[in-house]
UniProtKB/TrEMBL annotation:
Sequence ranges assigned to domain HTH cro/C1-type in this UniProt record: 18-65
Pfam families: HTH_19 (PF12844)
InterPro entries, alphabetized: Cro/C1-type_HTH, Lambda_DNA-bd_dom_sf
GO molecular function: DNA binding
Superkingdom of origin: Bacteria
Name of the molecule in the record: Helix-turn-helix transcriptional regulator
Species of origin: Chitinophaga agrisoli
Length: 65
C-alpha cells in the first residue's frame, strides 16, 4: 500500500470519527464552528475526508469535544 493511500484512509477515518462524536454530542457543524472558530464548510470537508488538517485543527477539535 502506498503512503498516500494510507494517509487518505486515515483522513477519512478521522473525519468519520469526528462526525460521530459531534453527532453524539448533538452538535451541528455551526455549533462546532462557535466552539472552534473553524468554518462549517471546512468542518464538512474534514468530516468527508476531503481536506488535509493541521495539528492545531486537531487540537481545536479535541478541546471543543
Amino acid at each position: 500500500m502506498m503512503a498516500t493511500d494510507r494517509y487518505t484512509r486515515e483522513l477519512q477515518n478521522f473525519g468519520e470519527r469526528l462526525r460521530q462524536i459531534r453527532r453524539t454530542k448533538k452538535l451541528t457543524q455551526a455549533d462546532l464552528e462557535m466552539l472552534t472558530g473553524i468554518d462549517p464548510s471546512d468542518i464538512s470537508r474534514i468530516e468527508n475526508g476531503q481536506k488535509n488538517i493541521e495539528f492545531i485543527t486537531i487540537v481545536k477539535f479535541a478541546e471543543a469535544l
